[in-house]
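Allow me, if you will, to draw on your knowledge of protein folds for a short while. The matter concerns a single protein, recorded as an amino acid sequence and a row of backbone structure tokens. Kindly check, if you would, that the fold set down in the tokens agrees with what the sequence suggests. You will find the record immediately after this paragraph.
***
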Amino acid sequence: MELHIRKPHLVSAESQTDTHRSQITFDDLLKAVLRHRPDRIIVGEVRGPEAQTLLDAMNTGHRGTLATIHASSAEEAVHRLATLVMRGSNGMNLEAIKADVRRGIDLIIYIHREQGKRRIGQVLDTRV
């Protein structure tokens, strides 16, 4: 498991796509979690079709969401998430998706490594 959060009232789940058991994708788990009407959604790295489901959740009332994505800056994270969503969409315009990303996300915090330690490199407030 990618995230280790030890708090009460927490439901943890892990996708399985490369085991001998039946496949459970990240997107499947995210959709199942949304049925429970969570106050917070915390996911590890977003890297595939789950980006659309996550963005839909953030734009339909699940404001307590935290996710990680690999990008080289906070602005690049907007572009990367929009690109992932576009790959799974049926011809949606990239600029329209970027607008959805900015509507669904309040803050993007870019963290980089410096001398072996993680440091905050940039904070992007998408509400302005």
Residues 29 and 71 are 24 Å apart (CA to CA). The two ends are 35 Å apart (CA to CA). Residues 74-88 form the longest helix (15 residues). The chain has one domain: 26-125.
